[in-house]
Amino acid sequence: MRAPTASHPGPMTSALTLVRPPAAGSPRTRDAYPCAICFLDTVGPTRRVSFGYGVAVHLCSVHASSRYLKRSDGRVAADALAAVFESLGCLTPNRRRALAAHVRRCEPAPETGRRRPGAYGGYRDLYRQVVARRDAGDALADVLADIAVCPRPWGLGRPSAATVRRWWRTAPIGAGA
Ligand SMILES: [Zn+2]
To answer: Which partner for 159 in 9, 15, 146, 163 could form a disulfide, CB atoms 3.0-4.6 Å apart?
Structure first.
């Protein structure tokens, strides 16, 4: 939590110097709103953060930072806001959808297409490469050896050898195309 500083003497000037201008079409941002997460302990100005689905909350500079919002693939912020909404008796389906969408946006995604649920999780591109090599007649041992020496190539760490073997056994022919 940040303490007020000499450069932040009070709400009247902070509104002029520290609050970002609102996005076009959004209601005027004021620093008088408490942070939805800090609430009574809010320090400093807040800004309006939109989560889509018409859901927006005011957050302090700590909780509006991308570092906080993206922590643990967005789950920390989503869980905190879900608790806030639940406490207020307003965790509506729409708000649940907005928070779930926030988590989906923060999850590491393959470079092409959306992340799909399934055996290969976020390793879609790697899955396709493995299956394409299998279909082309490469040896499983060679593919595993290549994966073992590739340093975090997919932004997710390395899939286990058992996972790659499962893809090898179960992927339909042509799924790597
Ligand atoms: Zn806060």
So the answer is: 163
In which domain, by residue range, is 86 found? 11-106
Give the distance (Å) from ligand 1 centre to CA of residue 72: 17
Mean pLDDT of 90-114: 80
Radius of gyration of the chain (CA): 23
Listed residues 106, 127, 148: the one ending a domain: 106
Cα dihedral: 102, 104, 109, 115 (round 10): -160
Question: How confident is the model over 65-88, as pLDDT tens digits?
Answer: 999 999 988 899 999 999 999 999
SS3 144: helix
pTM score: 0.47
By three-state DSSP, how is residue 152 classified? coil
Distant-in-sequence, close-in-space partners of 32: CB < 8 Å, separation ≥ 6: 11
Distance in Å, CA 91 to ligand 1 centroid: 19
How many Å lie between the centroid of ligand 1 and the Cα of residue 39?
7
The secondary structure element, H or E, covering residue 58 is strand 56-60
The total number of structural domains that make up the chain: 2
Last residue of a domain, one of 79, 106, 133: 106
